[in-house]
Amino acid sequence: LQIGPNQLEAMAEVAALVGHTPRTVKRFVNTYRVLKATADNLDRFDDVRHGVGDHQVVAFLLAAAVGPHKRAGAVSTALAAARSGDTLEAALANVHDAELRTWLFGHRAFAAAPVTRFVPWSAEVFRYSFWPPHRS
Questions:
Q1: The pLDDT of residue 135
Q2: Lowest CB count within 10 Å: 6, 8, 130, 135, which one?
Q3: Can you give the pTM of this predicted structure?
Q4: Would you give the end-to-end CA distance of the chain in angstroms?
Q5: pLDDT 10s digits, 76-90
Q6: How far is CA 77 from CA 19, 37, 40, 51, in A?
Q7: What is the distance between the alpha carbons of residues 131 and 32, in angstroms, rounded to a whole number?
Q8: 60 neighbors 126 (Cβ within 8 angstroms)
Q9: Residue 38, SS3?
Q10: Is 78 helix (H, G, I), strand (E, B) or coil?
């Protein structure tokens, strides 16, 4: 699957959370392509709904899953415990990760997006981390 301009932009947005080693970046890009292939509707993968598109949701969650700080466990647990009315920022409020907080502060579309945009993708994305999916 080709990575389009919107997807490249989403990947660039989360690059600070991914890390800088060639192996991590390659894992991020290749896994992103696999996840895109699992999308229910590829024609709508880039469509922005409630502030973010699936292409952005997948990029963010995958950055958490493969990034150098191994935040997959904390993010997975926080998403599983989130209430449906929460924003992503509210859902991750108890995650003690200064880099993630700073990133969210600078990316308000992600922070303000409803957590319900992230939860459906989280189990699929975190399958590619070494953290087992958190079941609610």
A1: 53
A2: 135
A3: 0.92
A4: 32
A5: 999 999 999 999 999
A6: 22, 25, 24, 23
A7: 17
A8: no
A9: coil
A10: helix
